[in-house]
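Something for you to look into today, if you have time. Could you write out one complete protein record for me, on any chain you like? The space below this message is yours for that.
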Amino acid sequence: MKPLPKSFYRRPTLEAARRLLGKILVRVTDDRVVAGWIVETEAYLGPDDPASHARRGPTPRSRIMFGPPGRAYVYFCYGSHCLLNVVTDKDGRAGAVLLRSARLLPGDQAGPTSAQGGNLVKGPGRLTRAFAVDLSWNGWDLTLGEKLYIREGIRIRDEEIESGPRVGISQGTDRPWRFTIAAGFKIPR
């Protein structure tokens, strides 16, 4: 299947974080393909977001958050793992969506089986390990459709999305910019 086009990512970050739910993250390696429905995201904006790497404007680390949209923003966190974000919004305006959790498509065994069926890879560090994403993917164009990309999946309606505070941060915790697929929604097998 084709990757999401650049136009998908060229939207406000909060909207992109919601619309990425239900899409399929794909990683193609030399010996396997890992794919999973995105089930949890977090939005990070620009200078007005105290938890964002872009809060101080473009720096060597955050410059990628200012575009172009559709790129991977991967960084090392807590000295132990990489985190995968998707650059969003229009070129020149900072925005990125952290991919927090995915439910693997049938046949992939990179995470524990969940009560809803399928293997759940919960947490952004576990997600990057399951999908073999490291710092070398920082800046990767996700619209190429090869090696690492996001494609259409299932449509998640607004009433099937829950929001809450972002986690693992010390500032901006009052903003309900973490999005998950509502409990009880059944991901197809």
The helical segments are 6-9, 13-19, 124-130. The longest strand covers residues 33-44. DSSP finds three helices and nine strands in the chain. The chain has one domain: 6-181.
